[in-house]
Amino acid sequence: MDSALYVFVEDLRAEGVRGLLDRASAYGVRGVAVAAAYHQARDVTPHGASRLTLRRDGVHFPPPEDLFGGLRLTPPVQPGAQDRPLDELRRACADRGMRLHGWTVFLNNATIGLACPDVTVENCFGDRGSPADLCPSHPDVRAYAVALARAVARQGVDTVVAESLHFGAFTYERCCTALGPMDAFLFGLCFCAHCMRRAADLGVNAEAARQECVRIVGGVLDGDPPAEGEVTRAALTAYAGPEAVAYARARSESVTSLVGEVAAAVTAEGARLTFMDATGAAKGYAHGLPSAGLAAHDSWQLGIDLVALGDLVPSFAVLGYARDPARVADDVAAYRRSVGKNPELRVVLRPGAPDTDSADRLAVKVRAARTAGAGAADFYAYGLAPFEALGRIAEALA
Prior knowledge:
The protein is an alpha/beta fold. It has helices at 9-15, 17-27, 65-68, 85-96, 110-115, 139-153, 181-188, 193-201, 206-221, 233-240, 242-268, 279-284, 295-298, 306-309, 325-339, 359-372, 387-390, 392-397, and strands spanning 2-7, 31-38, 41-44, 52-55, 58-59, 99-105, 159-163, 272-277, 315-319, 344-349, 376-379. β9, α15 (325-339) and β10 (344-349) form a beta-alpha-beta unit.
């Protein structure tokens, strides 16, 4: 069974490339997935150079001029990128016979969104209040994503692991109004001109869908009771009407076509694409207790059509952020049924809190995922987990 350990460039600087790979090898993993392009974050890092690490948007290598020179959107460049930390990691991995994966955050970039607000998602009220969420329907965003994919592939990685290559889940920092899950979903739909045009081309009455979202969400914000229950197509149809549901489903065309372009670009650079579906994180990241709906069944809410992508993408990353091994197995099995028998499935597990409290539990999850159809078990993330939790990986892979 293949395996990889997710790592940050900050980890490499804190502990040294060879020291970190020595630990990774001792855990028994066969490769590392390095955050070649990442997003803003403020992380508690138990064994880092600092115990609270501030991460920035951008790439950890100089962006190739031939890829970005003519584009409106270019990636921010991380401090120290001129030292080319990925080059040393690539050589060290080759020396050990380890695979190198380029973990790449595509459409989550507040630095770009604040500089160019028109490329971010626009809600039904015309607000652009989510600067980190770049819209996959926007032509400039699509050109940026393809160029970024090529740039990471050129770093000599075996695979490009695509995070945030789809619509994002609606989030906010503060809200003193009761919003049900369906209200929040409608609030987060993008109604920019590009999304509406693509939906209209598919026969959807985009303006009617927007007006219905304004009516429902505006009513809740004005004091109407929020919707109860989880987001399903049937429940949403009853609550918001068929045009709103058709509009939400039409978003998958933007995502599917963009993923196809990115996959082709990665292949042209001599690597392959692993598509990461963030639905598992949206459901269980904070607590490891995802709601009843399986991630594969809810991925349409992010504009992801797993059946269509199964014919385009050679590899999928399934986020198994759940305490219960049976839930991990159910999620993996649902993805296998959705994408078909050919694509590789890599399950991403957390060796520590909040999902895992022992080496035995982690081992059970790995076995359950393998039985359900996963061909690889990856572990998130070296810099975030204490050494005691990371040590469980060796027993789980034994």
